């Protein structure tokens, strides 16, 4: 996953115009590093694909919700897709206008819906009739009429990992077409919402556009009898290439496949991973190297608490040396210090001889990396750094042990 952002100069790994060994020396490891240039390039690629369709891009905050990165994307003209009131709060604090925010999520609480209504959020993607009923009641109490899109579960099995497939009838997400049709026929039952759109999102890391096209057609057929329902949110799911995924289609393939369907529709998309994943890397340091059971183990100070995707999704991220290391390459298990057998960053990383103090970069970790980090084993979450050309800055400091105790100490003091 080396690209114009993460590349080698004289054998060493750089991010844009910053040598990563020097950055790690200054900040310490583990540390997340993001490339502003790569983020901008990914946004430009999405715009080139979907601007001809008139699509409004709403960045999926769950991929990476750092305040500075939200501000960067907002400055590039993107709206935001939130799946919790906390993400809405983050977006508002980053300066995003409430009308540019879409509130999605399968289990919104009444308190979250009330908060979003009071904030003036632009759209609600509703996933059950009970949620619609609650939203209608709360909107009536406030004398507001929010825009609503019903999320259709089209019964489509996307070709992706089972944990990130969301459009089949075994998933918890959305409403089956029969229920959507019934609600549309009874829109008068919900006078306090503007039921003006449909939403489909069938999963992440989609291997081809065919299932997205099928889902869009299902939604359009449901909307056909209602000429005022002409907003179609097709979600995201555009894939990025990790190890072994090099044949995945890009955003242009999805846009081209969808283009014949979308004339006369107001289109929204909600990409996350395709904007931020390959713009980030996790830098870790080697602690120890040992061999047992015929395997070489490279033990690092990075773990599943910083990057849970390998343990959760069997994800395989490229792991490469940061320094200019040469010599024969052989497979190694790159693992962390957490007391779990699942604490492995890569089970088969081709690496040269490694020594204590050497540094490694786990690539493609800009999405679902830091945002899913935890404090398991009383580990502090790492800092985040943004690189822009030859400049870099810390955009979230490393936590401390005192940070982890603060809420309990506060409770004990009362």
Structure report:
With 414 residues, this protein is α/β, with parallel strands linked by helices. The chain contains twelve helices and 20 strands. The protein has a domain at 36-274: Alanine racemase (TIM Barrel, Alpha-Beta Barrel), CATH 3.20.20. The strands form three sheets. Strands 4, 13, 14, 15, 16, 17, 18, 19 and 20 form a nine-stranded mixed beta sheet that branches. A hairpin with a 2-residue loop joins β19 and β20. Mean pLDDT is 93; it is low at 158-164.
Poorly predicted segments: 158-164
Q: Write the CATH architecture name of one domain.
A: Alpha-Beta Barrel
Predict the CATH topology of one domain: TIM Barrel
Radius of gyration from CA coordinates: 23 Å
Q: Helix proportion of residues, in percent?
A: 25-40%
Derived from helix and strand composition plus strand pairing, the structural class reads alpha/beta
Span of the ends, CA to CA:
50 Å
Q: Average the pLDDT over all residues and give the rounded result.
A: 93
What best-fitting shape do the alpha-carbon axes yield? globular
Q: From the structure provided, what is the oligomeric state, counting identical versus distinct chains?
A: single chain
Strand content: 15-25%
Give the strand tally: 20
* CATH class group of one domain: Alpha Beta
Q: Main beta sheet, described?
A: 9 strands, mixed
Q: CATH-wise, what's the superfamily of one domain?
A: Alanine racemase
